[in-house]
Design goal:
- The complex is a heterodimer of chains A (about 110) and B (about 110).
- Chain A is about 0% helix and about 55% strand.
- In chain A, a hairpin with a 2-residue loop joins strand 7 and strand 8.
- Chain A is mainly β and about 110 residues long.
- Chain B is mostly beta strands.
- Chain B is about 0% helix and about 55% strand.
- Chain B is built from no helices and eleven strands.
- In chain B, strands 2, 4, 5, 9, 10 and 11 form a six-stranded mixed beta sheet that branches.
- Chain B is globular and about 45 Å long.
- Classes of the chains: A mainly beta (about 110), B mainly beta (about 110).
- Chains A and B meet through strand 5 and strand 10 of A and strand 4 and strand 5 of B.
Chain lengths: ~110, ~110
């Protein structure tokens, strides 16, 4: 079975540009999570969805960040405008609604903003 | 606060030894715990989950949960150089849907 799919795997952009990261969760999974990982701050939860509905976006750092889940098989995380401090690895993870509550991570998108 | 604490390491063990990784948590309501392994430049990979007090074994890995003392541990028997990675501990409080991750412990297994 395919795992969580993310694209692109690497993104290099200039400050001020819009960046869109994409995620396809594991088929049948009801929850989708977006994380950001940096050396300084570790793994941070940005937002999560249940059945395509955003449940908790308290981790979104500021209004420049937005996330959508238009259907059960696709989600986007958008940064507009991007800043150098947004450089990080962004992971998407998914899990089933019922237990076990194990989350499965995608390969991540390494974002570099210059 | 629902903090999960891990020693950042690095923890160095010789090949063939038992590596012991520990994690403490602050929320007594946490019911489920998860260990992830993350190689440098890769995504976290689920190793084990544990929901009940006691030990849970899977191959060379044993997870231990002690809810009274609020700690979780992961033992790796017969450590191999390929086990060298960062190990993340995560807790899931009852009634919540999001994990609380520790900062990870870096393990080095020396040949």
């Amino acid at each position: 079975d395919a795992g969580v799919i993310q694209s692109p795997r690497h993104e290099v952009t200039e400050m001020g540009q819009e960046v869109t990261l994409r995620c396809k969760p594991i088929s049948g999974h009801d929850y989708l999570f977006w994380y950001r990982q940096t050396m300084m701050r570790g793994l941070e939860l940005l937002i999560y969805f249940n059945n395509n509905v955003p449940i908790d976006d308290s981790g979104m750092p500021e209004d420049r960040f937005s996330a959508k889940m238009p259907n059960a098989s696709f989600s986007t995380l958008k940064i507009q405008p991007s800043e150098p401090r947004d450089s990080a690895v962004y992971f998407c993870a998914s899990r089933l609604r019922q237990g076990p509550y194990e989350q499965y991570f995608g390969p991540g998108t390494r974002l570099t903003v210059t | 606060q629902k903090e999960v604490e891990q020693n950042s390491g690095p923890l160095s063990v010789p090949e063939g030894a038992i590596a012991s990784l520990n994690c403490t948590y602050s929320d007594r309501g946490s019911q489920s715990f998860f260990w992830y392994r993350q190689y440098s430049g890769k995504s976290p990979e689920l190793i084990m989950s544990i929901y009940s007090n006691g030990d849970k074994e899977d191959g060379r890995f044993t997870a231990q949960l002690n809810k009274a003392s609020q700690y979780v541990s992961l033992l790796i028997r017969d450590s191999q150089p390929s086990d060298s990675a960062t190990y993340l501990c995560a807790g899931l409080p009852k009634g919540f849907n999001k994990f609380y991750f520790g900062s990870g412990t870096k393990l080095n297994v020396k040949p």
